[in-house]
Amino acid sequence: MAKVLKGDFTGKKKRITPKGATKEPVPGYQLKISITFSDPLIWRRILVPGSMTLAGLHQAIQICMGWNDSETHQFLVGKIFYQSGFGIENMRKKPEYDEANYKLYQLEESMQFIFTYLYDGGEGWELELTLEDVLPAGCKEKHPVLLDGSLGCPPEEVGDIHQYQALLDVFERSGKDSKKYLAIPDGPDFYPDVFDIDSINAKLKEIT
User: Fold this and answer.
1) What is the longest distance spanned by two Cα atoms in the chain?
2) Peptide bond into 40 cis (omega under 30)
3) Distance spanning both ends of the chain, measured CA to CA
4) Which of 61, 80, 94, 100 is 20 to 30 Å from the Cα of 196, by its Cα?
5) How does residue 5 score in pLDDT terms, banded at 50, 70 and 90?
């Protein structure tokens, strides 16, 4: 008895969707970025498109903090560490979880569990990222937008938040005007109470 072959023999090729890609509009996210252990809290509130990769978010964080991207960094999302494609231990070794390969909408569930950014190999600055809101799919913004924040972010030359808090304590006990700059050893002069939201947003527009 002849077998009946079932299938599409019209010669039409099926479209293959790249891994991790989606045809559907993706949501955007409102994130609060705060420096762990800062007191008073140093924070930024930012809108980011869900199509942005963790590598793009790294750039946005650096701009919002006024840092120079001169040290190593990692994201901890859920239970997984994501890092730059160069790796940390070996510059030629690709990490298993390359931040450039993961978009935010793919990590939405994990972002609500644990979302941390470690700068300077985890020995310097730790930032807590809080997912505050999920924006409707297909939101118009294609680049990050800084909405609000509080206080100037310490220059990365300080080392970590504990060293910064010690400097700030000495500064405040000196009775100097808080609007004046704080001299940072081996770093730029710094205004503890000031951050320029317009300047930051102008730089964020350059992220694609």
Assistant:
1) 98
2) yes
3) 60
4) 100
5) very low
Element (H, E) at 169: helix 161-173
- What are the sequence ranges of the domains in the chain? 28-151+195-204
- For domain 28-151+195-204, the CATH architecture is Roll (3.10)
30: Cβ contacts below 8 Å, ≥ 6 apart: 45, 46, 47, 131, 132, 133, 134, 135, 147
Q: Is the pLDDT of residue 1 over 50?
A: no
pTM: 0.81
128 and 141 Cβ atoms separated by less than 8 Å:
no
SS3 per-residue string spanning 91-159: CCCCCCCEHHHCEHHHHHHHHCCCEEEEECCCCCEEEEEEEEEEECCCCCCCCCEEEEEECCCCCHHHC
- pLDDT of 205 strictly over 90: yes
